């Protein structure tokens, strides 16, 4: 066989199909084959196959000379004109000029927001730039959120200020006559033609004096539990009327009020009440006030002291004149125009009218339809009422007013600010909720870190234990049940419902003073303002909790039979009941009661059968010695023996008890213990007694 190979290297395929006529007679084989560059590739050697594979990438494309991204400038919805100029790398003037030729781009201010993406793209097109839409940058979101928050306005110019009624807070110790004084002032108000009474839940009312001036009074409780409420009253007021009973003088809450007034720099007028009582001592009360650092007028100071009798109405006119004089000297003025500013005095949930708040307007004039913000709550005012429940059309500065229309319940003491529209109110709330969430995360980050460290330490210890035990020793073993450290401890779960926010806050402040959770846990399952609802009952069933209803209504149906609901309207009675509940959960303790004592006069040995046993000759010096009870032998302050007696004799007769000043012989059950002269033998008994909680709420 004849094989022919063509070894021609051509750029294109070479077809070898030549016929050799002179070889026709010989048996020959002709092969058609192709030759190109790919078929001439050299094979790799063994060393080249072992070497790592190297991947070569093509070089990056060069950036444009103007510095803009090759895909175009990044734009987003609601970007400002200044931000658009920045991303296009053009002066703001160029962008503003291009906006003049774009339909709908009317506001060309640098801070103006561009909500339409097509408009932004058209502006960029006019400037010869390509664009691509991206998500709003986080920094831009933060800037927008900061712009959405609202703050109080700067001080008004003097020409806009007008006189306003003074805000006077009546403060003092519990049961010193604050409520009686307010009732007497209300009576004077009724005599002047103002009908109606004081609603205690509002805590604020207006009195018209004989000279026609109006005064806004705030009522604050005097109980020790309401210190936070008194602090709010001191901040929101212009003048403090400190009520001091002439029979008691300066008490605990009196000192607290004086300290609050000094911190808030609020002037004080002292009303010495109950001067009609025979035990009243006015001079002693004045001396105690001077010792507290109050500069009284009779000592050359500026603090007025008015002796009054709120019950009989003595010198009430002098007190009103003193308040009016102090207000005139202070020159209280406010701006009645513009957006409203105020402070929340109290808030509550009415079962018929919904969420209500009592506020004092400090600036602007509040009207129906106003949109208000207070913390994380907002309202569109649907109704305004005075302290008598009468509707108001407007509330000028210095006026206490009850506001109807809150979506959420505002917190007492929070600032109230008016905004132009509900849309802006929602934007501000969104920003404030975001800030509150960030603060919560930051405050809990340290606790999360500690928990993580504890978990890591536990995990490493368990891993080391498994390593030391070996791979197969830990397998197949019973899994250890994880036990909660609080499991098995007594527990009292409570749900708090109150009539107003201040009452709930005061109760929670008292519960925070409980510090015996290692003995009996006190869990607050839920708290809120308003009547007890079906949801509260279901929650109480799930957690086996007690519902404490403070001055609110409770449902009267079958659902309440399985739930422990307790109603109170006095805070210290509620706390006393809770202390009883905590004490009932504690296990009984063994209590020791000493029945009598005896002095060892002499110790001697007697023969009891074949044994010699020690006997203590004693004289009973206190109480009664009973043979059946336990005895304790004390020597130099140390207990030598604690147990039963074997024998008690008097004049060789076995007896069951020995009275005081009677001598006897006592033989201990343990014959190894040798009594000595001068030792003391105590006879005592033990019994189980219910344990009382050591919680001291401070009142």
Automatic annotation (TrEMBL):
<keyword id="KW-0809">Transit peptide</keyword>
<dbReference type="Pfam" id="PF00009">
    <property type="entry name" value="GTP_EFTU"/>
</dbReference>
<comment type="similarity">
    <text>Belongs to the TRAFAC class translation factor GTPase superfamily. Classic translation factor GTPase family. IF-2 subfamily.</text>
</comment>
<comment type="function">
    <text>One of the essential components for the initiation of protein synthesis. Protects formylmethionyl-tRNA from spontaneous hydrolysis and promotes its binding to the 30S ribosomal subunits. Also involved in the hydrolysis of GTP during the formation of the 70S ribosomal complex.</text>
</comment>
<feature type="compositionally biased region" description="Pro residues">
    <location>
        <begin position="152"/>
        <end position="164"/>
    </location>
</feature>
<dbReference type="InterPro" id="IPR000795">
    <property type="entry name" value="T_Tr_GTP-bd_dom"/>
</dbReference>
<dbReference type="InterPro" id="IPR023115">
    <property type="entry name" value="TIF_IF2_dom3"/>
</dbReference>
<dbReference type="InterPro" id="IPR044145">
    <property type="entry name" value="IF2_II"/>
</dbReference>
<dbReference type="GO" id="GO:0005525">
    <property type="term" value="F:GTP binding"/>
</dbReference>
<dbReference type="Pfam" id="PF11987">
    <property type="entry name" value="IF-2"/>
</dbReference>
<dbReference type="GO" id="GO:0003743">
    <property type="term" value="F:translation initiation factor activity"/>
</dbReference>
<protein>
    <recommendedName>
        <fullName>Translation initiation factor IF-2, mitochondrial</fullName>
    </recommendedName>
</protein>
<keyword id="KW-0396">Initiation factor</keyword>
<dbReference type="InterPro" id="IPR000178">
    <property type="entry name" value="TF_IF2_bacterial-like"/>
</dbReference>
<keyword id="KW-0547">Nucleotide-binding</keyword>
<keyword id="KW-0496">Mitochondrion</keyword>
<dbReference type="InterPro" id="IPR036925">
    <property type="entry name" value="TIF_IF2_dom3_sf"/>
</dbReference>
<dbReference type="InterPro" id="IPR027417">
    <property type="entry name" value="P-loop_NTPase"/>
</dbReference>
<keyword id="KW-0342">GTP-binding</keyword>
<keyword id="KW-0648">Protein biosynthesis</keyword>
<dbReference type="GO" id="GO:0005739">
    <property type="term" value="C:mitochondrion"/>
</dbReference>
<dbReference type="GO" id="GO:0003924">
    <property type="term" value="F:GTPase activity"/>
</dbReference>
<dbReference type="InterPro" id="IPR005225">
    <property type="entry name" value="Small_GTP-bd"/>
</dbReference>
<feature type="region of interest" description="Disordered">
    <location>
        <begin position="132"/>
        <end position="164"/>
    </location>
</feature>
<dbReference type="InterPro" id="IPR053905">
    <property type="entry name" value="EF-G-like_DII"/>
</dbReference>
<dbReference type="InterPro" id="IPR015760">
    <property type="entry name" value="TIF_IF2"/>
</dbReference>
<dbReference type="InterPro" id="IPR009000">
    <property type="entry name" value="Transl_B-barrel_sf"/>
</dbReference>
<feature type="domain" description="Tr-type G">
    <location>
        <begin position="163"/>
        <end position="337"/>
    </location>
</feature>
<dbReference type="Pfam" id="PF22042">
    <property type="entry name" value="EF-G_D2"/>
</dbReference>
